[in-house]
C-alpha cells in the first residue's frame, strides 16, 4: 500500500446552523434537522446522497433518526466522539478519513443541544452512582469534596499556571474582553452589542477561584451541521471549498478527563501538544501559517497553554502574547472572531469550526483579510482534537 | 445511572424487617377517654368502668381503631421512646424520591385485630416492607405502589402476643402535571448527603483505610512505585501485584480552588479544595479545613485529618494548614 495522507483529500462544502439562544423552544432533533438541511442546501447536495454521519457521544440525537428523516438509504459510516467539547474537531476529522478512504462519499457532521434549557453541565449535581464502573470510581475522588464543576477542575490547573508563570486574572480577563469585542459585532452572537471591559471582568463574581464569572463561557441552545465530501467534488459545488488540511485527536501521558492533576507538570496541555505536532506534520504548516485561529474557550485560562502548545508563544509566555493584544481585533493572530463560546454561543465547539469555515470562505462577520489557513482546537482538559482548514 | 441499577436496589429492600417502635405509655383510660371525645365515640365500654366491668371483658378496653395511636411519637416528629429502633422503615420512599418520584399519596390504611387491648398493656410494633409494585401510571402520575405492614404486639413475660396489624400502602409518584404535584402529600424531609465515591476492587483499600483513620497509598510490589489515584496495574512496570503503605499525612498544597458557585448542598461555601502533594510524592484532591484565606496558598504545609459525614456513612481525608 502506498503512503496516504489525509491532508487535502476532503473539504467542508456545506454549513448550516440554527440561531443561538438560551431556550430554543423546540426539540434537539428539530434543531439537528434544521442545521443539517441548511448545510445540505448550502452545499447543493441532495439529502439522499448522505452516506455517513459523525457527532459527539454527548449528542442525544441519534444519527439513524437523522438518516431516517433525511431519507438516506445507503449510510455506510457513522461515528461518535467522546469527551464533551474535546470532540469538537474530531467529527470533521473522522468524516474526512471516511471520504479520503472512499468509505463514504458525503458525510454530515452535527452537534445539536438544548444544553441551557434542558440540562446544564455546571450544576455540580452529577448523578454518579455506586456501581464500580470506571467513571463512578474516578469522579469519586472529587465529588465527595465538592470539587464538582468543570470550572472547578479547570481552576486547579489555572491556579498552578498563574503561580508558575506569573500570569494573572487580568490576563485571563484580556482573553474574555477580546472575544466579547468580536461578539459585539457578530449579529449571530448571543452577546451581540454587549462588549465588556477588563474592569467588568475583574468585578464579576467568583465562580471557582481563580475563575470569575466572565472567565466562564455561557450555556446555549442551538445546532451546527456541516457537509464533508471529496476535495475533487468540492471544486464543482456552489461554495468556495474549505479544504481539510489536517485533523488529529490527542491523548497524552497521565491523561484523565478534566482531572489530569497527577502529571509532574500540570501547567501544560500535552494532549494538545500531540494534536499540534500531528496537525503540523500532516499539513506541513507551522505557527506562522495562520491568519486567524479558533482556540477553544469554555474557560479563559486554558486559552493560554493552547497558544503555547501550538508554538504561538513560548512556554509560560502566552501572557505576554495576550498583553500585547496579538489575540485581539487587529492583532497578529486574532482568535475566536465569532466571539467564541464566551460571546457567540456554547455549541460544544462546533460553532468554532463553523467560524473557521466562514473565515476561509471570506464570509465571517468579523472577516480577517487574506485568510489562507485557520487553526481550530477542541475542548481542553479532556482528550481533545484539532483541525487545520484552509483555501485550496 | 441506568434505571435497572437503582431499581434493583429498591427490589433488594423488599422483605426487609425494621426494628420495634415502642409506646410512650401503657394503654390507659385517660388517653382512651380523650380519643373517644375527639372521635365522637360514645360506647361506654371504653369510658365507663362500671359498665365495662359488667361485660364479658371485665374492664375498660381500648377502641380497636385506636391501635396505631399507642405507638405514635407525639407532638414532635421522630421523638420515639427509648428502646425504639433508629432504622427508617420509610427509606425506600427516600430512595424513590431521589430518583424523581417526589410526590406521595396514601391509598390504603387497613387495620386488622386479633383481640381487644386492655388497660395496662404495653404495645410496640415492627415494620416490614411488604411490596414495591411494578411501575404504574395513574391519573396522578407515574410511580410505584409501596406496601408496608406494621405488626402490633403486646409485651408479655411469657412471650409477646400479636394484637393487630396495619397495612399501609402509598403511591410514590412523579406528578403528571404541576397541579397533580399539589395533590395531598406527606412531607418527607430528606437530609442531603455528601456524594459517596464509587468504589471498585482497585480502590476499596483506600476507602477502608480512610474509615479506619489511615491514609493508604498503593505501592507496586515489583518496582516500588507509589501511585494515586489507585489502579489495577503499575504504570511503570505493568505489574499487577501491589500492596499499600500508610502515608504520614503530611504534605503541601500543589494547587487549589475555592468553590463559590453554584452553592450545592450539603457543602459550605466558599469551599476550599486542595491538590495536595504528599511528602511521599503522590498527589490527591481533598477539602481544606481550618484554613485562613492567606493559608490557602501554593506551598502551604498541611496535615491530614479524618472527618466523618452523614452519621458515619462517609469518612473523608481532609487537610489542615500547619506551621512549616
Automatic annotation (TrEMBL), chain A:
Taxonomic superkingdom: Bacteria
UniProt-listed Gene3D superfamilies: 3.40.47.10
Span of domain Thiolase C-terminal: 258-382
Any single Pfam family the record assigns to this protein: Thiolase_C_1
Protein name: Lipid-transfer protein
Amino acid at each position: 500500500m502506498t503512503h496516504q495522507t489525509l491532508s487535502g483529500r476532503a473539504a467542508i462544502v456545506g454549513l448550516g446552523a440554527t440561531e443561538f439562544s438560551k431556550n430554543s423552544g423546540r426539540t434537539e432533533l428539530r434543531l439537528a434537522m434544521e442545521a443539517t438541511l441548511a448545510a445540505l442546501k448550502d452545499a447543493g447536495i441532495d439529502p439522499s446522497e448522505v452516506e455517513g454521519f459523525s457527532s459527539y457521544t454527548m449528542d442525544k440525537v441519534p444519527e439513524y433518526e437523522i438518516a431516517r428523516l433525511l431519507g438516506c438509504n445507503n449510510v455506510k459510516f457513522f461515528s461518535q466522539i467522546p469527551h464533551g467539547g474535546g470532540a469538537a474537531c474530531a467529527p470533521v476529522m473522522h468524516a474526512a478519513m471516511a471520504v479520503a478512504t472512499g468509505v463514504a462519499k458525503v458525510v454530515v457532521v452535527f452537534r445539536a443541544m438544548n444544553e441551557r434549557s434542558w440540562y446544564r453541565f455546571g450544576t455540580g449535581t452529577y448523578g454518579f452512582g455506586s456501581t464500580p464502573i470506571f467513571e463512578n470510581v474516578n469522579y469519586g475522588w472529587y465529588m465527595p469534596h465538592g470539587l464538582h464543576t468543570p470550572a472547578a477542575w479547570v481552576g486547579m490547573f489555572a491556579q498552578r499556571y498563574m503561580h508558575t508563570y506569573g500570569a494573572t486574572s487580568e490576563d485571563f480577563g484580556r482573553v474574555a474582553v477580546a472575544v466579547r469585542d468580536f461578539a459585539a459585532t457578530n449579529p449571530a452572537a448571543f452577546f451581540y452589542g454587549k462588549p465588556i471591559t477588563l474592569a467588568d471582568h475583574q468585578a464579576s463574581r467568583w465562580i471557582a477561584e481563580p475563575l470569575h464569572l466572565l472567565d466562564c463561557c455561557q450555556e446555549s441552545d442551538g445546532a451546527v451541521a456541516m457537509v464533508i465530501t471529496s476535495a475533487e467534488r468540492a471544486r464543482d459545488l456552489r461554495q468556495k471549498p474549505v479544504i481539510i488540511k489536517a485533523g488529529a485527536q490527542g491523548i497524552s501521558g497521565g491523561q484523565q478527563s478534566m482531572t489530569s492533576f497527577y502529571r509532574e507538570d500540570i501547567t501544560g496541555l500535552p494532549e494538545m501538544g500531540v494534536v499540534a505536532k500531528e496537525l503540523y506534520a500532516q499539513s506541513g504548516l507551522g505557527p506562522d501559517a495562520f491568519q486567524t485561529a479558533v482556540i477553544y474557550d469554555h474557560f479563559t485560562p486554558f486559552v493560554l497553554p493552547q497558544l503555547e502548545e501550538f508554538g504561538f508563544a513560548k512556554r509560560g509566555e502566552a501572557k505576554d502574547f495576550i498583553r500585547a493584544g496579538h489575540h485581539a481585533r487587529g492583532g497578529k493572530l486574532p482568535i475566536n472572531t465569532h466571539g467564541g463560546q464566551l460571546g457567540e454561543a456554547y455549541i460544544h465547539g462546533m460553532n468554532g469550526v463553523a467560524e473557521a469555515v466562514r473565515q476561509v470562505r471570506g464570509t465571517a462577520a468579523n472577516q480577517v483579510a487574506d485568510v489562507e489557513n485557520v487553526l481550530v482546537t477542541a475542548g481542553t482538559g479532556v482528550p481533545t482534537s484539532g483541525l487545520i482548514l484552509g483555501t485550496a | 445511572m441506568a434505571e435497572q441499577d437503582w431499581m434493583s436496589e429498591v427490589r433488594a429492600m423488599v422483605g426487609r424487617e425494621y426494628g420495634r417502635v415502642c409506646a410512650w405509655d401503657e394503654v390507659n383510660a385517660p388517653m382512651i377517654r380523650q380519643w373517644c371525645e375527639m372521635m365522637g365515640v360514645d360506647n361506654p365500654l371504653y369510658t365507663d368502668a362500671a359498665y365495662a366491668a359488667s361485660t364479658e371483658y371485665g374492664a375498660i378496653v381500648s377502641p380497636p381503631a385506636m391501635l396505631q395511636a399507642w405507638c405514635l411519637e407525639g407532638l414532635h416528629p421522630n421523638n420515639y421512646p427509648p428502646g425504639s429502633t433508629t432504622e427508617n422503615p420509610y427509606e425506600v420512599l427516600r430512595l424513590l424520591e431521589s430518583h424523581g418520584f417526589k410526590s406521595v399519596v396514601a391509598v390504603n390504611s387497613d387495620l386488622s385485630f386479633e383481640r381487644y387491648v386492655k388497660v395496662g398493656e404495653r404495645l410496640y410494633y415492627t415494620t416490614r416492607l411488604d411490596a414495591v409494585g411494578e411501575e404504574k401510571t395513574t391519573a396522578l402520575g407515574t410511580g410505584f405502589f409501596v406496601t408496608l405492614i406494621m405488626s402490633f404486639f403486646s409485651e408479655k413475660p411469657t412471650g409477646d402476643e400479636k394484637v393487630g396489624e396495619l397495612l399501609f400502602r402509598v403511591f410514590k409518584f412523579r406528578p403528571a402535571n404541576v397541579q397533580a404535584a399539589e395533590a395531598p402529600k406527606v412531607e418527607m424531609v430528606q437530609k442531603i448527603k455528601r456524594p459517596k465515591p464509587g468504589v471498585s476492587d482497585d480502590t476499596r483499600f483506600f476507602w477502608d483505610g480512610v474509615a479506619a483513620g489511615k491514609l493508604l497509598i498503593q505501592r507496586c510490589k515489583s518496582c516500588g512505585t507509589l501511585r494515586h489515584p489507585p489502579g489495577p496495574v503499575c504504570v511503570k512496570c505493568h505489574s499487577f501485584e501491589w500492596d499499600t503503605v500508610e502515608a504520614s499525612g503530611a504534605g503541601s498544597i500543589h494547587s487549589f480552588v475555592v468553590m463559590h458557585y453554584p452553592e450545592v448542598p450539603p457543602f459550605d461555601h466558599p469551599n476550599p479544595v486542595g491538590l495536595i502533594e504528599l511528602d511521599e510524592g503522590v498527589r490527591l484532591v481533598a477539602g481544606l479545613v481550618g484554613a485562613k484565606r492567606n493559608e490557602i496558598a501554593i506551598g502551604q504545609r498541611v496535615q491530614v485529618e479524618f472527618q466523618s459525614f452523614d452519621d458515619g456513612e462517609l469518612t473523608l481525608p481532609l487537610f489542615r494548614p500547619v506551621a512549616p
